[in-house]
Amino acid sequence: MAKPRLFLQRLFGQSAPTGDPVAEALRYFRDTDANTLELARRLVAALRPQGRGDLGVIGRHQAMLDQLAADPALLAAFRRHIVHFVATRRLVTFFTESGVLPGTGFFSEWWRILGSNLLPEVADERRLKDCLHVIYDRTSDWRWLETIPAKASQHFWALIAPAEELRNIDWRAIQEQMLDAVLLLAHRVSGLGIESELMRASPNFDDDTPRFIALSAEALGFVNAFRATLDDPALTADDGNQLLVIADQCHETLQRIRKRALTVGTSLHLSYILTRSEQSLERLCDLVAILRAGEQATVRADAIQSWGEFAHAAFLAENRRNSLRFYMAQLSHLLAVRVTENAARSGEHYICDTPADYRKMWRSAAGAGVLIGLMALLKIMAASLHAPLFGEAFMFSMIYGLGFVAIFLLGMTVATKQPAMTAQTLAGLLGDARGNRSADLEKIIDVAAAVSRSQLAAIAGNVMVALPVAIAVGFGLSYLVGEPVVSLDKGAHLIADLDPLSWALPHAAIAGFYLFLSGLISGYFDNRAAYAELGPRIGRLRWLQGVCGRDQASRIGHYIQEHLGGIMGNFLFGCMLGSTGVIGTILGLPLDIRHIAFASANLGYALIGFQFELPLKAIAWAAFGVAAIGFINLAVSFTLAMRTAMRARGIQFEHWGPLLRAWWNRINHHPRSFVLPPRQRAVDA
User: Fold this and answer.
1) 323, pLDDT greater than 50
2) pTM (global) more than 0.90
């Protein structure tokens, strides 16, 4: 087959294939009548990795640059295709929308992305923005594009747009659309001056409104002056400095609102507006920098650099436009930081620094152990009713949910709630650490030791009280009714649930995930309560003021606002625990939960069911199962919470080696600090 193909190529005047896909793709650019869009798509296909193990993208990209630089005729043909193609597209949407959140709102864009993944959108080849989806037609293209060095990207644009070409007719068309984009972006940001959400988030926003209005007027003056310079090069162009100063002032205002939102709460809509506005301001500054540098003969290299950086970022963002994960990442930062900040503040209450804190932790955990022992019995009794599945799920959820809320409101501690909270505090310390300074590392180890002894105290308080309470309550009720309150079959079932070689550990991981989720839920509702000013609004209810008076109504509102996150987090955590087993039954899947405190109570009730006639070996194995369940509960919730907190804050801690050495040194020299509070603090107290 190869010989006939070569014969036909020679017959029609085509050169033989070189074997280099990049060179083959570039060869077609010599045809001035070829479809540029198809040529660009073919070139990208040649540059794209051909498989997971293909690491030659950078080499192929550099080979393309070398071939263009070495062949002036090819470079001229390539430049004509690319520049003319870009200049004849509609560029305004590319400049104003690529890499910028749309104005349709969060949920509208969410549904658009979901719809486009099911049914691809029809590209309008008149718009460069849509043409990029034809050229980079794979949703993963951004991955290899991201690996291309910045210098290589700038070299490419320097070949495409040398200084002597910046004033030809095609570049003038591009600049005209860039100026239109500057105006549109300025008008978009100026519209924030009447945005009620920003006024609500910043009481003094009215004082900053003139900045946003001035931005639009200054942009109009810059664009008119720049167009006049394009028509008559003898005129002095507006350098755009005043426009950039006003843009910086607007950006400063938005940053101030962001910082305030970290203390008074935020909303998804506010986060969306702030992100879109900041992106628009950054894009406006980028375009002004490109335009200004391109008109100054001495700094046209800066224009190429600015354009290269902008185009690279815009191409990446446009390729990820239909990525739900990328879309969420643009919005989640402010909201995630706010939620985890609430959890971090809660986490500080779970850390024992002094002997007094340590004793208080024991007491609060012991109190929770008493209630957990009673809740476990209520759950066993509810299960014995053999109610319909919905009724069973409802009863279990209410037992767990209301029980956890009671524990929270009484100031008691459930050990497994700690990791999701304390992880946020540790993440904050990792973010504040500067390098591997010993003082910062020692501070982190101090907090880690405090977290360790606090966690051990809480676990011991829960388990060492829940188990004897279960035995005492079970024995007492059995004595009153004249028969074991837990049947032998139920006792066998409870023991089997603690077997670490069964589904106990996967079920413990599910409970650990719920513990992590409940921490986020608490943070979310704390944020909503603060942002919506829930306390003052409750205090203004006329019927509540009529029942208990204005002052008492205000105190009730303040109490609800301060505790709403904990109430909702604990209640919904209980609902998740109570309904998972029933959902597993409905779906025919082995879904259930195991929680260390309830597992210890269930061990006590199992002993009642067997009337304490279990072999010691079986009891020891069940006790090991309880310990393993607790370890999985804590490890899963702590790991997920730490990962979420670090990602929300953008923390990349790179000194794990020195930190682990500092931790090991503390273990060797002061192991007691991980179990008990320091003696010195006890003396000081």
Assistant:
1) yes
2) no
